[in-house]
Amino acid sequence: MTDNSDPALEGYPPQGELDERVHHFRFSLAGDSLQSEHVNLFGDISGEGVLHKVESIYADPAHNRLLIADEAFNQRSVKVYDLAGNFTGEVIPSQYFTSEPEGIALYSCPDGSGYWIMTDQHESDDNKFQVFDRQTLDLSRHLQGRDHPQYRRHLADTIFVWGFLTRGFLPGP
Fold first, then answer.
1. Which of 13, 61, 114, 119 meets the CB 3.0–4.6 Å disulfide criterion with 103?
2. Given a cut of 80, is residue 5 above it in pLDDT?
3. 16 to 117, 122, 128: CA distances (angstroms)
4. Chain-centroid distance, C-alpha 39
5. pLDDT class for 135, splitting at 50, 70, 90?
6. Cβ proximity of 58 and 83 under 8 Å
């Protein structure tokens, strides 16, 4: 879970608190009761791994990766941590996000391959969806509403990133 703050209203957290941006919880069911355990709290306080404005987050246990979108204007990137909360040094850079990196989804294949789908969220209905290889994080393709008129209404909603997965929009690798 991320502790997203609204920089316009609250500013960014102080530098010394940036290591508290992501909270790792473990949940379990015991009968009809939901149990929770706070496992870890993390985020870098210096260097490329600093998390400024965080919202979207997605874990890939098969590849020991946690992708975290940093929506801060001077960042606009997705930073890769391992599941223990350590920054890996990998960043999906701002060159792929002209606005805010938003929804993140994983199209997973049984053989371990697949795609990461990330939204470049714009205020207009001109959202872009960047598709990256699951294993290498290399850009695989780019989709935009104006290029796919039959999906334009859906592509205007960044939450529709799941629609790619449930409606078979993307072919398998």
1. 119
2. no
3. 32, 31, 34
4. 20
5. very high
6. no
Rounded CA gap, 21 and 5, in Å?
A: 10
CA distance 80 to 23: 15
- Contact 99/72 with Cβ under 8 angstroms? no
Give CA–CA dist 163/155, Å, rounded: 9
CA distance 153 to 82: 35
Reference 59, options 101, 25, 110; nearest CA is 25
CA–CA distance, 132 with 58 (Å, rounded to integer): 14
Tell me the C-alpha distance between 161 and 163, whole Å: 5
Instruction: Please give the model's pTM, rounded to 2 decimal places.
Output: 0.78
CA distance 86 to 82: 5
Please name the residue that has the structure tokens 């805010």: 100
The per-residue pLDDT for range 83-96, each reduced to its tens digit, is 999 999 999 988 88
CB atoms within 10 A of CB 102: 20
| Phi, psi dihedrals of residue 3, rounded to the nearest 5° | -105, 45
| 8 Å CB contact between 108 and 163 | no
Q: How far is Cα 128 from Cα 158, in angstroms, rounded to an integer?
A: 9
| Separation between Cα atoms, residue 127 and residue 40, nearest integer Å | 34
pLDDT category at 111 given cuts 50, 70, 90 is very high
